[in-house]
Amino acid sequence: MPNTQKTFLRALAGETLPVPPIWLMRQAGRYLPEYRATRAEAGSFLDLCYNPDLACEVTLQPLRRFDFDAAILFSDILVIPQALGQHLAFKQGEGPQLEAIRDASGLGKLSLEGIHDTLGPIYETVSKLSHAIPSSTALIGFAGAPWTVATYMVEGKGSKDFPNIRRFAYGDPDGFAKLIDILVEATTQYLLKQVEAGAECIQLFETWGGVLSETGFNRWVIEPTKQIVANLRAVHPDLPIIGFPRGCGLHLVDFKQKTGVTAVGLDSGVKLDWVAENLQKLGPVQGNLDPMLLITGGDPMFDETKRILDTLGKGPFIFNLGHGITPETPPEHVGQLVNFIRDYKG
Ligand SMILES: Cc1c2[nH]c(c1CCC(=O)O)Cc1[nH]c(c(CCC(=O)O)c1C)Cc1[nH]c(c(CCC(=O)O)c1C)Cc1[nH]c(c(C)c1CCC(=O)O)C2
């Protein structure tokens, strides 16, 4: 076991702890008034991502309130397409908008050269954070996994059923592979720089893995993730990596075994007994309270939290949500959740 007071890293090394480490996806964000104030000071959301002082500040804000066991770098998965040369804007209330790349002929616009010029401020944020966080808190770096980042690059925005990317990937697999290869390389370089700057763990967000066929999942989720894991481990053999393939249910065992990730993040829809029996035996798991229960609070939130702790707390486990905190969440519910988990005796 690692000789560290950071419970988050101990859980990732396979230790079963009496109280699981806790952090929450999107723990920095619009539900906090202090985030909204810093974001207004920064100008736009992207200005905030590329401002090391302010990005560091918003990463620290939830730690000041809730004593989480891990901090996650404040940035976004879409800085990679932007660094590759694709135009990106976040329009108020509409989410991200990119100049869509619908087929292989659009790939010429992308270039790996100079990505670190764009991403440099983010490495600086990681470095500042590594000095600023409490000694018991671990620092998580992250990136989107290639398939998920590609969904935004090809659709040009968020989507419900991803018609354009599925048509591209299924119809021209060799052309689409070129896009995935570019993303594997950019993501590897980006994450290596985050680790160099002080990130102690990496999370790969595969938010839209669940829309693929089994064949597609193997080729466009498992394969690229496996390559990134191998590339990172070639330089940092002990680096803990969490894969979060959202909505991928029964694929999770294959995902864990074939990619070599250290731990698997769980969305709120997975069957917990199945996870305990089939997945947690293979390594640590993280999840999976429905973020909507953080809005309702009270008994529905505590009852489900108890069920999660009873089922997954007997093995290596990190408490988290099944997806990110939403802006409507009352901050006091987050404090109540953390206290409940820390006080829970089983
Ligand atoms: C798909 C995806 C994105 N970004 C991300 C994902 C994967 C996880 C997931 O599925 O949520 C990942 C992400 N985005 C953000 C973080 C920061 C770290 C954290 O606290 O977890 C992380 C890890 C900040 C953010 N990223 C975004 C915000 C809100 C921006 C704002 O302040 O207006 C934050 C705090 C914006 C964003 N960024 C993205 C979308 C679709 C949106 C718009 C939706 C929304 O407005 O909530 C792309």
Radius of gyration: 19 Å
**Total count of helical runs of at least 4 residues:** 15
Proportion of residues in β-strands: 5-15%
Helix content: 40-55%
Q: Give the strand order, joined by hyphens, for the main sheet.
A: 1-4-5-6-7-8-9
Beta strands, count = 9
Shape: globular
Structural class: alpha/beta
Q: What's the end-to-end separation, in Å?
A: 24 Å
Describe the sheet with the most strands: 7 strands, parallel
Order of helices and strands: HHHHEHEEHEHHHEHEHEHEHHEH
Question: Residue-averaged pLDDT, rounded?
Answer: 97
- List ligands, each type once: coproporphyrinogen III
Q: Give the low-pLDDT segments.
A: none
What does this entry look like structurally?
Helix 11 (252-259) links the parallel strand 6 and strand 7 (263-265). The chain is globular and about 60 Å long. The strands form 2 sheets. It has a 7-stranded parallel sheet. The protein has helices at residues 7-12, 33-42, 45-49, 52-66, 79-83, 115-132, 146-155, 163-171, 173-197, 214-235, 252-259, 272-279, 291-296, 298-312, 331-343, and strands at residues 70-72, 88-91, 95-98, 138-144, 201-206, 241-245, 263-265, 285-289, 317-321. The protein has 346 residues and is an alpha/beta fold. The relative contact order is 0.13. The longest helix has 25 residues, at 173-197. 51% of the residues lie in helices and 12% in strands. The site of coproporphyrinogen III has 21 residues, from strand 3 and strand 4. Coproporphyrinogen III (CP3) is lined by residues 25-30, 39, 45, 72, 74, 76-78, 95-96, 142, 144, 158, 205, 207, 324.
